[in-house]
Amino acid sequence: MSTAQGDFAGQLVSITGAGSGIGRETALAFAREGAEVVVSDVDLASAEETVALIAQSGAVAHAYRLDVSDHAAFEAFALRVLAEHGTPDIVVNNAGIGFGGPIFDVTQAQIDRVLGINLRGVISGSQLFGKHMVARGIGGHIVNIASMAAYSPQRSLSLYATSKAAVFMFSDVLRAELHAAGVGVSTICPGVVDTNIIRTTQIAGLSEEDRLAKVGRIDKLYKRRGFTPDKVAERILWAVKKNKSVVPVTLEAQLGYRQYRFAPWLSRLIARLDLF
Ligand SMILES: NC(=O)c1ccc[n+]([C@@H]2O[C@H](COP(=O)([O-])OP(=O)(O)OC[C@H]3O[C@@H](n4cnc5c(N)ncnc54)[C@H](O)[C@@H]3O)[C@@H](O)[C@H]2O)c1
Asked: Could you tell me which of 91, 268, 89 has the C-alpha nearest to residue 186?
């Protein structure tokens, strides 16, 4: 029997993309609150590092390699988690990649990759674990990581913003669908958070040299902003405890949310600025 203590003691949490940034900090935060954590990432070594960090505090976690855009692999992963650890109480669909560049430079392969990871990965995680949470009949919670890009149009971010807007609406619909089963759904919309995401962002139409120069400049701005992923993790745990629907995290994400609602014309004007 588990002797763990904390707000999530005895609960099983599954988090994708948990080898870095927001996913890793969320795994650490849930583990600190007593949860057992299934840590998955397309980069197994990084998932193992997260598990090692969790183990230092005496909590239990398990590392898996998972590419969330591969539905068959996600299905096999879900079956293994269910068989070896049980039905998760909380599922965090966090894995995501950045992507920029003018739409006419974007290739079909790039469209498939961004939508495959950022959108289909969230849908797969919600379907594959959600149906077992509902069947079990004791509730649970699904957290989907969108972005302030879901409601902040920005030139050269069409694909990324579209994937996140789709996650936003998917999550609102899922929340309604799972309400009667007592499974909550939260949509987290972070703003500018200092993680690895910018460094790994692909930009359509740029040479690797130009891409590195551009992401280097943006990464400096993210660092200067100084909002760290552990603070997003805090809000994720809060959203689960309070069963919040939409949670914009960071001041710019909160202001952007209101602006798009009350003065969408201003959002559309700002979208024309060449920020990315
Ligand atoms: N950092 C920000 O400013 C910011 C803002 C808004 C939203 N987000 C969202 O937060 C989530 C986490 O991003 P982050 O900032 O922590 O980035 P990150 O790059 O630090 O972490 C993302 C993790 O996802 C993993 N990953 C990438 N492709 C994957 C795949 N196909 N399958 C499984 N794992 C995969 C990466 O290996 C990495 O460990 C993403 O969905 C991102 O879009 C981030």
From this structure: 91
Provide the 8-state DSSP code for 103.
G
Beta-bridged to residue 99, according to DSSP, are 202
**Can you tell me the distance from the alpha carbon of 213 to that of 244, in angstroms, rounded to the nearest whole number?**
39
> Any residues with CB less than 8 A from the CB of 76 and at least 6 apart, and which?
none
Bridge partners (DSSP) of residue 190 are 249
**Pocket of ligand 1, candidates 151, 197, 235, 250: which has the most ligand atoms within 8 Å of its Cβ, to mutate?**
197
Q: Closest by alpha carbon to 125, among 158, 171, 84?
A: 171
Question: Tell me, which fold does domain 12-270 have in CATH?
Answer: Rossmann fold (3.40.50)
Tell me, using a 6 A CB cutoff, whether residue 223 lines ligand 1: no
Write out the catalytic residue numbers: 160
Count Cβ atoms below 10 Å from residue 212 Cβ, excluding itself. Answer: 13
Q: Where are the domains of the chain?
A: 12-270
pTM of the model: 0.98
For residue range 193-232, list pLDDT tens digits in order. Answer: 999 999 999 999 999 999 999 999 999 999 999 999 999 9
